[in-house]
């Protein structure tokens, strides 16, 4: 009896601590401005938005694309006269954009020039487990990994990043991430902006903390372990406070929330509407008019923004919860007129009657005790066994006090319900990552087409590293 009493008291104490932390977090007590973090000696001037280069295909004249990626140490001048130690792919920070087509065979030479092991995970790509790049695909220092796969999914904006066991958060934080873009006949046919870097622009949004010497500060405190890492400075494509010169017309933005733990609520300073045309796994069936876009860690969205009603040299800011972190400057006439498509593509809905199994995944715990279904990640344990070709319904519940993004490898999902209600229109397409609010239950459906061992986890990287992850096999 005494043991049960002490367990109850301990549980109550933990819940009280969690509650206090979340209240303080929501009231902004933990939030620090750039100068409050002892960074007032660091200065930054507004600069043009860097555009990640397209990675060269080493074999452009065949149906097999061949790429080379090197994980390497680097350095960046985020602030005037201050050099920050970083990591990146084929460069100092972040990585080039890999662009391929549906049906294309792809091979990648991935070399690790870091002083520690890493992996390279293709987030959102439907491939077999041996080529997925999860923690089982470890690349030791000085070694090279040679994944090969065929693109078997529609046009989409995906991304790649490390997935090293217990070190994903730190390696992504240091700069290791890049976009992976798929094109197909549908994307070719749509009358939407397609001039990469001009009116079709990637925005990799991440937050960071810097110490007074201008180095990354990734020392995790209590709040970071509980709610995930959140920085006081937002980077876009690796730049602080950038601006983008845009034509006086339609612009397509491919947005990635590449942050470790921050959820963004994006809107424009002039409150103008925009149209979401794609989610994680590709185009929506119809464009969705919106004024605000919420993206959890790992989620992507493509949006169309019409700047034709703005005057030349007029500036509009992109805001997160009212805070400006980049600007758009209308600088020139548009070369072409675009109209927001009413119909984008056709998505074949997966019927619930096709599902042979329903599985339940519950987010639980906090801090170092986070788990899914009461279990923490064990590389030697398979948590779920899925039959190859099976269609399944997964129910994801949240029994914690904060919102978690759920991500699974090797498949794209369709959201059936959120607490018994249909998903919002901008979540009606393909999703590989989706937010689950406290107390919420989200039902999704997918067909598993590739063999291997795959991960499912919270995409708050500090939670993933702490064990809020499991693995399933498809055979």
TrEMBL record:
SUPFAM superfamilies: Cupredoxins
Signal peptide: none
Keyword check for Transport: no
Keyword Cytoplasm part of the UniProt annotation: no
Domain Plastocyanin-like: 72-185, 363-474
Family designation: Belongs to the multicopper oxidase family.
Name of the protein this chain belongs to: Multicopper oxidase domain-containing protein
